[in-house]
Fold each of these.
Amino acid sequence: MKRIISYAGLVLGVAGAAMPASAAQADAIPRTQVAERQQPILIHDGLSSPVGMAHDDGGNLYVANWSAGTVLRFAPDGRRSVFADGLSGPSGLAISRAGDIYVASYSEDLVWRFTPSGKRSVFVRGLATPAGLSFDAKGRLLIANRRTHQILAAHPNGKIDVAAEGLQTPVGAVELPNGDILVSNIAGGISLVSGRLQARTINADLASPGPGIVRSGADAAYVVDYGGTTISKVDRNGRRTVIADGLSSPVGLALAPDGSLVVATWGANSVFRIGRP
């Protein structure tokens, strides 16, 4: 029987879920490599199940605080404030080129849009447990729609395209420069969508890849392993390099303005910094 992975009411796994047939394509993947590992440094604590994170142009870090139903804002000097409250299961978070903040409500099946001043409106609704968010090169918001096993792409006007399907409980996605998409699936595995909607599994080594996935260069992404303790770099060929370890259930991940990574963990309810990989 498959385990159900949950924390503070957020159910990410699916009992009895089976890996898709494409998982067999991961059999020939090279072994995991280990780089010089970075030591995580605690920068913010006292959070409540932090998930999605992103920086604005001013260097402020926004964090979706799942259990508290809030979005917190951390200034570059570390000062914290509540940017938004009264949310239901805020999960993924992304910031557009215009500076608007988008927050997925995992519990309400919608995505909120906030102006930098905090004014909110519903961007899209009618989703199915939306998790991680990111933007593609066209300015579309990529939404990991976990329950339908799809990655959706929402245009600025709210029109929705299907960017990928046939996934296994996707919770995060990021576009590569050539238009391919790397996807993290909480039930296990990293998938690549290349030229077609249908995805294929390229790496099945991680226990439970979480919503935290950010691009690394032209052909790879950094990925958290919620079911483990690591941050890894996985390239489009499935090669995995561990860059940090010792984190307690890492879930969220964001690239800082200085090139370092910030990691949100559920085990410690904290945010850590990892030096430039």
Amino acid sequence: MDAYFAGMLLGLAMITPIGPQNIFLINQGFTFGVPRVFVAVVAAGVCDTVLISLGGAGTSAVLNRVPGIKSFLLAAGVVFLTYLAVKSFRSRPEDFDQSTPPEMRWRRVVAQCTSVTVFNPHAVLDVVGILGVAIAAQAPDHRPIFAAGTVSASWLWFTLLALGASTLRRWLTPQRRVWIDRGSGTLMLVFAALFLGELLRS
């Protein structure tokens, strides 16, 4: 069990810092609440499970040999995060009319969550690489247990994040939601700018 908890601690250390994926989940919790927010939780959890599994299988070494892969992911990340930011800035109080439940299109939620994850080069390259190395460093019989710990950390964090946002949802007026969306859009633009700067330097 030591390997499991070591993997969980490493997973939590890597997943808890604020990033596009966490911002997306918080917004889903604010918008839809429980139980519909769990569509986003499952989508994010599956994405991280796949990335961690790929890291454990040594995919990071393959990705590092593919020319232009990081530049492509950075460029895609800039475009997609800018799109999400513009969408957030265009929100209005009437978009959050609490008298009628917001419509959820689960395919769109899954697609957006997947894009936020896949078009984040740090998630694809850094997380896959770091966790891949950490998994490979374990004794062979401990590797599956360690990997299970890192996967559990992602699912636990995403669930807590969604539940926390859903709990706060009842105190959010439409006007507050607009300001939260603007704050979210600003953070998305910050990450887009960081990705763009990294792209120009590469």
Amino acid sequence: GDGAGMSAASKAKRNQPDAEVIVFERGPYISYSACGMPYWIGGQIGPMDKLVVLTPERARERRGIDVRIGHEVTQIDAAQQVVHVRNLETDAIFTQPYDKLVIATGARAAKPPIPGVDLPGVFALRSLSDGERIYDYLSQNPARRAVVIGGGYIGLEMAEGFRDRDMQVAVVEMLPQLLPNFDPDMVEPVAAHLVEKEVEIWTQTRVTQIRQSTDGALEVIVQSGKGETTLPADIVLVATGVRPNSELAQAAGLKLGATGAIWVDAQMRTSDPHIYAAGDCVEHFHRVLGENVWIPLAPVANRGGRVAGD
């Protein structure tokens, strides 16, 4: 129901106005700006409604798309061309036949095997519901110190958001530099800017444990070249990457690529001719590298959705 899924649904409906187009979305929101969430949490954007591009009601009224939030597809029966769906409000299960199916299950936040990662006050940021939980937690709990685990896009954007709330921030990255996918000369000015903004940077540092102190606050135990250090925190954000949600497709017998994401051709068609896939759950052929790669970014997801909808 987010970028790729709604792009595919909208394009299909424009191409064939008489077609019945149904979107099943497990969560409560569709078509929102995930990239804007750190800035909303940091107070630069508000209220949350500004992140929502399209509501289910407007999708039905303006685009003729039957959007059903709170519905989870639990199984794809490719042989019978039906999906099994659970209504999360009533727990009722039903089947829905299809002529063509688009899988746009996205990606999920990677959960590192760190003791204490499930403690209250420890969050990941992937969906708008995640962002809502973080925002509510900060609104209800006076927080002065944040520890961000992971120095990628989301980690650094959230570090900025926490600083915008006048919080002390420490960023912990296991690799030798922040933004590990970038060349060092590009990262140096970013790191210098963070230091200028009084963000504490820990590179080549591994988190070994998250625990609660006697006063109920959080403590992040890290191991670096300096030995073991305890970083106090009122909130911890785990931003250690994402993984493709490809299990549903795999269970249906669809081909996965070497990246673990769903294999698709140039038309976003999977190994089943009646099933397409788009978004963060698929891999794409990279024309420069000459191989399939996984690029979980919004522009790629939206373009892939439009291709699938065609």
